Amino acid sequence: MFPCWFLTALLAHVGWALQQTPDMIVRLGDSLTLNCSHKESGTWTMFWYKLPVGKNATLQLIVRSLEGNKAEFEEEFKSRFQSSGTKEKSLSVAIDHVLLNDSGTYFCAKQDTLANTPLNFGQGTRLTVLGKNSEIIEPDVVIFSPSKQEIQEKKKATLVCLASGFFPDHLNLVWKVNGVKRTEGVGTDEISTSNGSTYSLTSRLRISAQEWFNPLNRFECIANFFKNGTQQSIQKIIYGDTGDSPISENYQRSATAGKFVYIMLIFKSILYGIFVMGMMLWYKKMY
């Protein structure tokens, strides 16, 4: 087993070339298969690890297998976990009659057997096991506008997206600005907060006050979750505000000035066109 701090160090070697099964939600007693594969040349040993649910969880080795060899399971996983070993750069693990404590995040990893390189991890597969009668509850999503104090003091604006009342703890939040995904200035809680039988998750988007005080800007928070075996989404939208602060007044003055300059340029172009036409008519009369 590895402590969480060691897991963090290991995941610094995350290898996106490893393809894992996407996140899953299953019912108690179901059976499932976790698949992992890669396309890199060489002689590889492949592994599956489990990170159980909980703040003090430790990473547990489930199985290892050298290419073409049998799977070697750790003792506690031998009864319900099965694998035919690594074949053609792929290692799959089947779990029979899943239990509630099978919930967790499962990481596939590979290691160059000859070079003895550090473990190279996949992105992880999050498995949630629900009781037979457990209900999947969709989240309520709301966006809170930035505080006036932050805008006045720091010239920044923080939008807060709150997803609450959902179950199970299997949700992520994404920000979009004018239809484009935004990652800069985004901070999302690493762990959902438990509120009894449901969960909540918060994400923050920090932008400039100038960007906020543009009523044409469209800020969207998207909650992605799994239901009935598919990923579903709920979106909430808020638009930039004109407001009544000095910053917003400056923005409005700048916008008004811009419009005025634009109109003046058009007017100037029209006058210039009239002048040129007049000169051409005068020239024709003279000659």
Automatic annotation (TrEMBL):
InterPro entries: Ig-like_dom (IPR007110), Ig-like_dom_sf (IPR036179), Ig-like_fold (IPR013783), Ig_C1-set (IPR003597), Ig_sub (IPR003599), Ig_V-set (IPR013106), TRG_var/const_region (IPR051117). Residues 3-120, 139-238 form the Ig-like domain. Its main location: membrane. Keywords: Immunoglobulin domain, Membrane, Receptor, Signal, Transmembrane, Transmembrane helix. Residues 1-17 form the signal peptide. CDD domains: IgC1_TCR_beta, IgV. The keyword Signal applies. It is found in: Membrane. The chain crosses the membrane at residues 260-283. GO terms for cellular component: membrane. PANTHER family: T CELL RECEPTOR GAMMA CONSTANT 1-RELATED (PTHR19256:SF65), T-CELL RECEPTOR GAMMA CHAIN (PTHR19256). This is T cell receptor beta variable 6-5. It comes from Gallus gallus.
